[in-house]
Specification:
heterodimer, A: alpha/beta, Rossmann fold, 10 helices, 10 strands, B: alpha/beta, abc type-2 transporter like fold
C-alpha cells in the first residue's frame, strides 16, 4: 500500500521538534494523502508527470513551483475536480477514483481563481456555502456569529468585490473551513497580496495546524517557502526537490531559498 | 431541499445585483416587442388599386372616389387605360398576378339599388395575399373606408356585404395572429437567454469548481439555477403580454388562468433549453449566441409563426415538431383569439412538459459528466 511508500529521503522529516532523519518516527504517523505515479496529460502536453509523494497528518506542505509547473492541475486532481490520466491517489484511506464522495466530506479547497462570489456579501457567501454543504440551521447560525467576530461589522454588509484583499482572503479561508475538513488544499492563497498580509495569512495556517489540520499550500512566492514543514518543489510537472526547508538548504549548501530554487531548476533542466 | 434552497437564494441575489442581466431581463423584451411588432405590422401607403364600377350610379361613383381619395391607395393608371372607367376584369387579374396592383375592388351592377333598398349589397374585393401582412392591412383599410361610407349613407347596420378573394394565399392570417405569435417567440427567447448565462457565468468565474466539489447533486444545481429564473421569466412574459394586449390591441377572448398555466409550462421549457445550453457552452458569450440562435430562428420560421407549417418542406416540417414555439403558438392563438379552453391543448401542454423534463435531464447528465471529468 502507498502508506509506507516514499521516494525521497527528504520526506522523512516531521515537524520541527522531531529529530532530523527520524525515519522511524514518521512511520508511526498516519499518512493521510498518498500519491503514486499521478499523471495528467492534456493532448500531447504532460502537465503533471508521475508524481509520487505522501502527506502526514498535521503537516503543512509547501507546494512550490513557477507558474505553469503543474501545481493547480495537481490540486485539482487531488480534490476530484480533474480526472487523472493515470496514477493512484489515496486520501484518508479512500481511493480517489471510487470514493470521491467520501473524500469530499473531509477536504477543503480554496481555489486560486475563485473563492467567493464578488456580488454577494461575506455573510451571504458564507450562508450559501454552508447551505450547499447541507449544514444544519443551528450550525449555520453559529458560523455566522463566528464570521461576525472575524471581520469588522461595517464590512459585513459590503459586497465581497468591495472588501480589502486581506479580509477577502480571510473570509475565503473561513468558507473553506465551514465543513471542518481534515485536509485543506490552498491553491496560491497568497497570490496578489502584499508581504505583510501574507505573513498574517500564514499565522492563520499555523493556527489550523495546531488544530490538527493537514494543509497543502501552493505558492510561487519563495519567501513563503520556509513557513512550510516540508517542501515539494515542482517544475515542468515533476517533483524536482522534496524535504523540509532547512534540511534542503543544508543539503544543497544554497545560501537562501531563491538560490536553492534556481539550482534545483537548473540541475533539473540540464539533466 | 435545504441545499437546493441555498442555490435558489444565491441565484436570486445574483440576478438582482448584476445590472447586465437585469437589463437583459427587462429592457430587451420591451425593445423587441416594439421593434418586431411594428416591423411586422407596418403601415402601408400608396397601394396600387383598381376599382371596377359596373354599377355606374352616383352612389357607386362616390364610393369609388372615397376609396381613391384615401391616402393609402393610388389608382392604377397607364397611358392607355383610364382608371376611372375600368371595366376589364380579366386585365385586372393579370395586373394583380404580375404584382402591378395589390388589389381590385368590384362594385357590381345594381349595387346602389341593393344598398338603399335591399341590403346588404354585395361588393367584391380581390387582394394579393402573397404577403399576408400586407394583405391584412389592405383589408383593414378597405373595411375602414366602407364602414365610414355605410354609416354616412345608410341607416341599416350592415348595408354592404364584402366578398373577399385572397389571391395566392387563401388562408390568410389576421394581424392579430402576428402579435400573439411574437409573444410566443419572445417568451422562449428571453427565458432561454436568462438561464443560458447562469452556469456559463460560474464557469467563467471558476466558481463552478466550488459547486463541483460541494455535496450538491447535479440535479440540485440544475434545478436551483432554473427555478429563480422562472419568476423573472413570468414577470417578463406578463410585460410582453400586456404590451401585446394594450399597445397592439390584440383581443383577448380566453381565460387568463389557462393562458398563465400554459405560459408557465412554456417558460419552463425555454428555461430548460437555456440551462442545457449553459451547461454545454464554455463562456457566457457563446451561451448567449447559441441561446439566441436556437430560439429565435426556429421560433420565427419553423413554428408556423411567419410561414404556415403546411407550406414548409417535409424535412423542415418534421423539424417544427421539436420547436417549442410550434406548440405554444397554437395555444396562445387559440386562447387569445378563439377563447379555447384547457381541454383543447392537453396535447400541446404535455409535449411542452415532456420537452422540459427531457432538457433538464440531459442538462443534469451533462453537468454530471462534466463534474466527473473536471472539464
Amino acid at each position: 500500500m502507498p502508506a509506507d511508500r516514499t521516494n525521497s529521503p527528504g520526506a522523512t522529516a516531521a515537524p520541527s521538534d522531531s529529530p532530523p532523519g527520524g525515519k522511524e518516527a514518521w512511520r508511526t504517523e498516519e499518512i493521510v494523502v498518498a500519491v503514486r505515479d499521478l499523471t495528467r496529460k492534456f493532448g500531447h502536453f504532460t502537465a503533471v508527470d508521475s508524481l509520487n509523494f505522501t502527506i502526514k497528518r498535521g503537516e503543512i506542505i509547501g507546494f512550490l513551483g513557477p507558474n505553469g509547473a503543474g501545481k493547480t492541475t495537481t490540486i485539482k486532481m487531488l480534490t476530484g475536480l480533474l480526472r487523472p490520466t493515470s496514477g493512484e491517489v489515496t486520501i484518508l484511506g479512500y481511493d480517489l477514483r471510487r470514493d470521491i464522495r467520501q473524500i469530499k466530506k473531509h477536504i477543503g479547497y480554496m481555489s486560486q481563481k475563485f473563492s467567493l462570489y464578488p456580488l454577494l456579501t461575506a455573510r451571504e457567501n458564507v450562508e450559501f456555502f454552508a447551505g450547499i454543504s447541507g449544514l444544519p440551521p443551528a450550525k449555520i447560525k453559529q458560523i455566522k456569529q463566528e464570521l461576525a467576530s472575524l471581520i469588522p461589522p461595517a464590512l459585513l454588509r459590503l459586497k465581497v468585490a468591495d472588501l480589502p484583499p486581506g479580509i477577502r482572503q480571510k473570509v475565503a479561508l473561513f468558507t473553506c473551513l465551514l465543513t471542518d475538513p481534515e485536509i485543506i488544499f490552498l491553491d496560491e492563497p497568497t497570490s496578489g497580496v502584499d508581504p505583510e498580509l501574507r505573513r498574517s495569512f500564514w499565522s492563520l495556517i499555523y493556527e489550523l495546524k495546531t488544530r490538527g489540520k493537514t494543509l497543502l499550500v501552493s505558492t510561487h512566492n519563495l519567501d513563503e517557502a520556509e513557513y512550510a514543514d516540508r517542501l515539494l518543489i515542482i517544475h515542468q510537472g515533476k517533483i524536482i526537490l522534496e524535504g523540509p526547508p532547512e534540511e534542503l538548504l543544508q543539503r544543497t549548501g544554497a545560501p537562501n531559498m531563491e538560490e536553492l530554487f534556481k539550482q534545483a531548476i537548473i540541475s533539473h533542466e540540464t539533466s | 431541499m435545504k441545499r437546493l434552497k441555498a442555490v435558489i437564494i444565491k441565484e436570486f441575489k445574483h440576478i438582482l445585483r448584476d445590472p447586465r442581466s437585469l437589463a437583459v431581463v427587462f429592457i430587451m423584451p420591451l425593445v423587441q416587442i416594439l421593434i418586431f411588432g411594428h416591423v411586422l405590422s407596418f403601415d402601408l401607403k400608396k397601394i396600387e388599386t383598381i376599382i371596377i364600377d359596373y354599377d355606374e350610379t352616383s352612389l357607386s361613383r362616390e364610393l369609388a372616389q372615397r376609396l381613391a381619395a384615401s391616402p393609402y391607395y393610388e389608382l392604377y393608371s397607364s397611358p392607355k387605360e383610364n382608371p376611372a372607367a375600368w371595366k376589364d376584369l380579366h386585365r385586372a387579374e393579370q395586373l394583380l398576378r404580375s404584382g402591378k396592383i395589390k388589389q381590385f375592388i368590384i362594385i357590381p351592377a345594381s349595387f346602389a339599388r341593393n344598398f338603399n333598398h335591399n341590403p346588404p349589397a354585395p361588393l367584391g374585393m380581390t387582394i394579393d395575399g402573397s404577403d399576408s401582412n400586407i394583405a391584412n392591412r389592405i383589408y383593414q383599410y378597405n373595411e375602414r373606408i366602407l364602414t365610414e361610407f355605410s354609416l354616412k349613407k345608410s341607416d341599416f347596420p350592415n348595408p354592404i356585404q364584402v366578398n373577399i378573394k385572397m389571391f395566392f394565399n387563401p388562408e390568410i392570417s389576421s394581424p392579430y395572429f402576428i402579435i400573439p405569435g411574437l409573444v410566443a417567440v419572445l417568451m422562449v427567447m428571453i427565458s432561454a437567454l436568462l438561464t443560458s448565462l447562469s452556469i456559463a457565468r460560474e464557469k467563467e468565474a471558476g466558481s463552478i469548481h466550488l459547486l463541483f466539489i460541494s455535496p450538491l447533486s447535479s440535479a440540485e444545481i440544475i434545478l436551483g439555477k432554473t427555478i429563480p429564473y422562472l419568476v423573472v421569466a413570468l414577470l417578463d412574459g406578463t410585460i410582453i403580454f400586456l404590451f401585446a394586449r394594450f399597445w397592439f390591441g390584440v383581443p383577448f377572448r380566453g381565460s387568463l388562468t389557462i393562458l398563465f398555466l400554459f405560459s408557465l409550462i412554456y417558460l419552463i421549457c425555454g428555461l430548460s433549453l437555456g440551462i442545457l445550453i449553459s451547461t454545454v457552452a464554455a463562456t457566457q458569450k457563446v451561451a448567449m449566441m447559441v441561446a439566441l440562435l436556437a430560439t429565435l430562428l426556429p421560433s420565427l420560421f419553423l413554428s408556423g409563426f411567419i410561414f404556415p407549417l403546411e407550406s414548409l418542406s417535409p424535412i423542415l416540417q418534421s423539424f417544427s415538431y421539436i420547436v417549442p414555439a410550434t406548440y405554444f403558438l397554437r395555444i396562445i392563438r387559440g386562447v387569445t383569439l378563439k377563447g379555447a379552453t384547457l381541454s383543447h391543448f392537453i396535447f400541446e401542454g404535455s409535449i411542452l412538459g415532456l420537452m422540459s423534463l427531457f432538457l433538464l435531464t440531459v442538462a443534469s447528465l451533462k453537468f454530471q459528466s462534466m463534474r466527473r471529468s473536471g472539464q
